[in-house]
UniProtKB/TrEMBL annotation:
Residue stretches making up the THIF-type NAD/FAD binding fold domain: 11-236
Signal sequence residues: none
Coiled-coil residues: none
InterPro entries reported for this sequence: ThiF/MoeB/HesA, ThiF_NAD_FAD-bd, Ubiquitin-activating_enz
Name this protein carries in UniProt: tRNA threonylcarbamoyladenosine dehydratase
GO MF, any single term: ubiquitin-like modifier activating enzyme activity
One Pfam short name: ThiF
Amino acid sequence: MAEWTERAELLFTTEGLEKLKNANILVVGLGGVGSFAAEFIARAGVGKMTIVDGDVVDITNINRQLPALHSTVGKLKTEVVGDRLMDINPELQLTRLTEFLSPERAFEMVSPEFDYVLDCIDSVTPKLNLLIAAKRKKIKVISSMGAGGKSLASKVKVADISKTENCFLAKTIKKRLRQVKIDKGIKVVYSSEIQQQNSLRKTDGKNYKKSFYGTNSYMPGLFGLYAAETVIRHLLK
């Protein structure tokens, strides 16, 4: 094994590191949740990854997103995050897809080649289609629900989507999933804290996003950590 994985090998064992090296992961969305999740997975030693995001770094991302610095504003997130992942593990087999995930493309992108899919999208329709595709194709998936409007780290947990509470995004996704006869069996990261309604802002609806909540520096990263932990522990079994 590579020298940089020495500490991980003590915990995961040589066999465990081999499982991670042979794994193939899809991360869709490289914002506050996805950027951290992708990095945690790369640092664990996963050998193959596809990252998907069509956006560039915006000045408003700096308070919470891993790729967001004053020096990276305007740069593609797949470029900034991808370069960082390759600097962590130069042997990583990395595919970068610089695109906004249309609802139709979600079904095409999810395939049996992936051991796990991380849904870190914050727009309802693409998120919904990605989850439906994963569920119907029987691909393991973990989905990030709403980290915005929340502040209590102790309220973040992983659960089946049917068990979520106090999350408007989860409520919307559950309602839409029920319309296609899916009411459980999708693992999510969510917070049971009641959202701070006064932090809500409306948008012009571009890229399937109609509104957003205020966010702090640590909650999206914590969601990404829980998502990455779920994937890594599954791969090590």
